[in-house]
């Protein structure tokens, strides 16, 4: 396991942090990122909240009254907001900003398949989303301004009824801190927390995926449905007149049970499903193919010299010799070493020396907008 870059885990390396804190207990790290520079300014965050390709929300509160609106938001609408008690949240800032993507990559001591996104919260004084609990791990990195955090490990997840947000009915803080630029708070799943802006501020949330068993089981059943091709049909050549016409025949139940018992899958099937499921982009993500794509030969000439970089929206993983790009699976016929390096680092520096099979695959992904020659934009 690699050591953590720049020691932003409070003097712990990755191994120690994972053993002592990951999914176990909170950790406050003062000065985790000294001289931290926000990937986006407050003005840029609010401008991004008006981008139709971005996923943005506006939360306002007055006393016990809460409102939730979904973007995009015009500059005029945001300018009409009061001076207190609101916050704008923008998901997936790593898709829109190279600096945001670079910040997210600093957390690569957690597998890429577990990473969700880098969300930013812009808040005016008093801005908050209320006391709540998340089902996933999160690092809360304070940027511009200051925010007060209260934390409770008590297990009481009853929510206030009738609200557009899942706000806890009862929240009794056990710990409280005010975070300034560069400070960071790690929270494992299930730890209740309440953050309130004490000044205008930006808070960056490094969130991790934690699929529910319901999602996994439902997704796997969909995966099996697409792969199975049962050919039988129910038949009852010895049918007799029923005593109750409204009763489901036991023979039909038996036939269904027999068909279901015939379903089989292997560990390889599960691995393929997991790779497809975890690499599937979010529903709102759209890729931008090049307007004038390079020919295969010109693409190879440029990329072999300058290298390759994944598009910031791409999710690319591997399991053994199987590779998964944005929900699609393939078995590497060649270039497995280069593909693994690309999945690990999200880039391949030049010069790239690979076989024809690798370049055919890379060019196909380039045409779809999934990756780009090095030196070009990652989006």
UniProtKB/TrEMBL annotation:
GO cellular component: ribosome
The EC number(s) this enzyme carries: 1.14.11.47
Listed cofactors: Fe(2+)
Full protein name: 50S ribosomal protein L16 3-hydroxylase
GO MF term list: 2-oxoglutarate-dependent dioxygenase activity; metal ion binding
Record has Ribonucleoprotein as a keyword: yes
SMART domains found in the cross-reference section: JmjC
Cited InterPro entries: JmjC_dom, NO66-like, ROXA-like_wH
JmjC domain sequence ranges: 99-225
Protein source organism: Usitatibacter rugosus
Keywords: Dioxygenase, Iron, Metal-binding, Oxidoreductase, Ribonucleoprotein, Ribosomal protein
């Amino acid at each position: 396991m690699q050591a953590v870059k720049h020691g932003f885990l409070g003097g712990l390396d990755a191994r120690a942090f994972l053993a002592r804190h990951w999914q176990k207990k909170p950790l406050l790290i003062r000065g985790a990122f000294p001289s931290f520079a926000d990937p986006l300014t407050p003005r840029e965050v609010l401008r991004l909240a008006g981008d139709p390709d971005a996923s943005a929300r506006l939360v306002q509160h007055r006393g016990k009254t809460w409102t939730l609106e979904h973007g995009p938001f015009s500059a005029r609408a945001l300018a009409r907001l009061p001076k207190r008690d609101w916050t704008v949240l923008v998901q997936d800032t790593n898709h829109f900003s190279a600096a945001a993507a670079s910040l997210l990559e600093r957390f690569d001591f957690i597998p890429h398949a577990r990473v969700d996104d880098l969300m930013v919260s812009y808040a005016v004084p008093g801005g908050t989303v209320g006391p709540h609990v998340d089902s996933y791990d999160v690092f809360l990195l304070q940027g511009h301004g200051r925010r007060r955090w209260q934390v409770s490990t008590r297990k009481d997840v009853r929510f206030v009824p009738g609200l557009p947000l899942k706000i806890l009915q009862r929240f009794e803080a056990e710990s409280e801190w005010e975070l300034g630029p560069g400070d960071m708070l790690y929270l494992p799943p299930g730890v209740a927390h309440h953050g309130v802006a004490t000044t205008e501020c930006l808070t960056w949330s490094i969130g991790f995926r934690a699929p529910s068993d319901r999602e996994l089981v439902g997704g796997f059943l969909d995966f099996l449905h697409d792969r199975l091709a049962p050919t039988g049909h129910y038949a009852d050549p010895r049918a007799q007149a029923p005593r109750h016409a409204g009763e489901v025949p036991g023979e039909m139940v038996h036939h269904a049970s027999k068909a279901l018992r015939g379903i089989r899958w292997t560990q390889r099937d599960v691995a393929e499903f997991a790779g497809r499921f975890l690499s599937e982009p979010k529903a709102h993500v759209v890729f931008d193919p090049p307007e004038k794509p390079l020919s295969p030969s010109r693409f190879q000439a440029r990329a072999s010299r300058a290298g390759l970089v994944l598009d910031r929206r791409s999710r690319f993983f591997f399991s053994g010799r199987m590779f998964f790009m944005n929900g699609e699976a393939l078995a590497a016929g060649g270039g497995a070493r280069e593909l693994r390096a690309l999945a690990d680092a999200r880039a391949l520096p030049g010069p790239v020396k690979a076989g024809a099979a690798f370049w055919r695959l890379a060019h196909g992904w380039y045409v779809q907008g999934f990756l780009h020659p090095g030196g070009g934009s990652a989006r």
